[in-house]
């Protein structure tokens, strides 16, 4: 009898099924789009063939003008506009993505993003002038605005609570793989003597877009989204049974129905206005600050301009691209390691461990460049390779902390009624600060020189303290119970109000 009861309990327990793993992997492949674009743009802007066609004055300054500071050779507002146009476009697209994702579903939003990325690849690869190339990047940004908004939501709603961190890691690992692939492709296309290698690099963006487009055609919609949009509990139940590997999904289905009912009660109120309620204060703070902090780690400065920076400290064109590829290989390996244990060890420990490594690496890089790289000339090989090693440590720390975890935490913390809007604010904030970094950092590097690394190190200290004091642990907690983390937190509990009609906290009603 006892054995039968144990078997019955085991049947009810959600488990990792092959179907849910494949589903989350296909959705996570959308990270290839973001990663590939980040990596490819940094590489082509260091290629002589690309610079000679669109930015000849920078190439001349880099090769012939010995009076220009090492830190200022790539300082060009137009070059930075090429990079930042992606983020500006993504900012507006992410705001538009919220009502689209909420009304039509997570899956159509992913499909639309893949189509936009395909169009951007064609326009960029065929680019006959700078305007055409920038228009292609605008399409890239619009695509990523939709995919970055919908994919983390999709994975979190599909994944079992105890494995949500690992499943969300598919998105971040695909970003790293996309970056690594872009670096390797840049390394190969740079060697094309005819000078059209940059076109091939940009046009090959069609490959990751095709992977997502074809894969998303076969994805089901999430049970939570199905119930919220049309109330089809039978269809939601069938999908739940398939992804949970058990026929008994009654309790989870009821939680989803309850959350959808709570969300529909305030459907007439605009989501942005609802977010201003006091009991959503913790959510909106995290949605704004986590992506802002992520940008102020300096990662996109390193990602975009790593090839440029390696050329600044003395590496040749091919060596600079290969060095950037080494940092991305490090990131990919470390992201895989984080995925394996983040659900057991928790989010906060990885934030703090990764932050510590980043602080040490940034301070040491700044110190080495202060002592060994002047305004003219190159750094000695030994110090240049030491900078490369330290940047690999920095990227490892980022991969363990601010790479994967902000996306994961943001996809967990929002109640169903504000989930799509909250994720849009997160993505829009990431794009907004990303655009600021991309448009200003070469000028800041020119002005602050090596001090820029101390600046980023100081930011990481501040954000690590914020995590220590204000970010609650969210591991293994079902989405419908996530409100408890705010109720029990020493600071945020003062903002969490009771629902007077129910006598229950609204934040507990999460699906």
Automatic annotation (TrEMBL):
The chain crosses the membrane at residues 16-36, 78-97, 109-128, 167-185, 197-219, 284-306, 326-343, 350-371, 383-405, 425-444, 450-471. Keywords: Membrane, Sugar transport, Symport, Transmembrane, Transmembrane helix, Transport. The keyword Mitochondrion does not apply. It is found in: Membrane. It comes from the Eukaryota. CDD domains: MFS_STP (cd17361). GO terms for molecular function: monosaccharide transmembrane transporter activity; symporter activity. Belongs to the major facilitator superfamily. Sugar transporter (TC 2.A.1.1) family. Signal peptide: none annotated. One of its GO terms (cellular component) is membrane. InterPro entries: MFS_dom (IPR020846), MFS_STP/MST-like_plant (IPR044778), MFS_sugar_transport-like (IPR005828), MFS_trans_sf (IPR036259), STP/PLT_plant (IPR045262), Sugar/inositol_transpt (IPR003663), Sugar_transporter_CS (IPR005829). Its main location: membrane. This is Major facilitator superfamily (MFS) profile domain-containing protein. It is a multi-pass membrane protein. It comes from Dendrobium nobile. The lineage of its organism: Eukaryota, Viridiplantae, Streptophyta, Embryophyta, Tracheophyta.
């Amino acid at each position: 009898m006892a054995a039968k009861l144990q078997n019955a309990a085991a049947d009810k327990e959600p488990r990792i099924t092959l179907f849910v793993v494949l589903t989350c992997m296909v959705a996570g492949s959308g990270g290839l789009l973001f990663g590939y674009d980040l990596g490819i743009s940094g590489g082509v802007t260091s290629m002589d063939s690309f610079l000679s066609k669109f930015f000849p004055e920078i190439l001349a300054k880099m090769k012939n003008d010995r009076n220009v500071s090492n830190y200022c050779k790539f300082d060009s507002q137009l070059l930075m506009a090429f990079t930042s146009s992606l983020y500006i476009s993504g900012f507006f697209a992410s705001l538009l993505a919220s009502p689209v994702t909420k009304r039509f579903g997570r899956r159509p939003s992913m499909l639309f993003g893949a189509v936009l990325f395909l169009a951007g690849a064609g326009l960029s690869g065929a680019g006959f002038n700078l305007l055409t190339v920038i228009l292609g990047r605008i399409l890239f940004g619009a695509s990523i605005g939709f995919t970055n908004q919908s994919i983390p939501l999709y994975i979190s709603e599909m994944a079992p609570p105890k494995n949500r961190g690992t499943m969300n890691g598919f998105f971040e690992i695909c970003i790293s793989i996309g970056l690594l692939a872009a670096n390797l492709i840049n390394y190969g296309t740079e060697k094309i003597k005819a000078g059209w290698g940059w076109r091939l690099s940009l046009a090959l963006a069609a490959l990751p877009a095709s992977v997502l487009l074809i894969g998303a055609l076969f994805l089901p919609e999430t049970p939570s989204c199905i119930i919220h949009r049309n109330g089809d509990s039978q269809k939601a139940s069938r999908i739940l049974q398939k992804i949970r590997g058990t026929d008994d999904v009654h309790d989870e289905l009821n939680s989803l129905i309850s959350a959808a009912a709570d969300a529909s009660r305030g459907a007439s109120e605009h989501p942005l206005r609802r977010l201003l309620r006091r009991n959503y204060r913790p959510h909106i703070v995290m949605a704004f600050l986590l992506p802002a902090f992520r940008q102020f780690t300096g990662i996109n400065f390193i990602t975009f301009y790593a090839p440029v920076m390696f050329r600044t400290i003395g590496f040749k064109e091919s060596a600079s691209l290969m060095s950037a590829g080494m940092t991305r290989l490090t990131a990919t390996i470390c992201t895989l390691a984080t995925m394996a244990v983040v659900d057991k060890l928790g989010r906060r420990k990885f934030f703090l461990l990764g932050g510590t490594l980043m602080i040490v690496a940034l301070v040491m890089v700044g110190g080495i460049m202060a002592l060994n790289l002047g305004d003219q000339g190159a750094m000695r090989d030994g110090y240049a390779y030491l900078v490369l090693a330290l940047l690999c440590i920095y990227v490892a720390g980022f991969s363990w902390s601010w790479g994967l975890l902000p996306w994961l935490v943001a996809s967990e913390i929002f109640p169903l009624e504000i989930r799509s809007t909250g994720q849009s604010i997160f993505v829009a904030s990431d794009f907004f600060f990303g655009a600021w970094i991309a448009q200003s950092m070469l000028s800041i590097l020119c002005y602050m020189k090596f001090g820029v690394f101390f600046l980023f190190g100081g930011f990481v200290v501040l954000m690590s303290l914020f995590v220590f004091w204000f970010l609650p642990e969210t591991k293994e907690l079902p989405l419908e119970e996530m409100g408890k983390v705010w109720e029990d937190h020493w600071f945020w509990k003062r903002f969490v109000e009771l629902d007077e009609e129910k006598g229950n906290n609204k934040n507990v009603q999460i699906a």
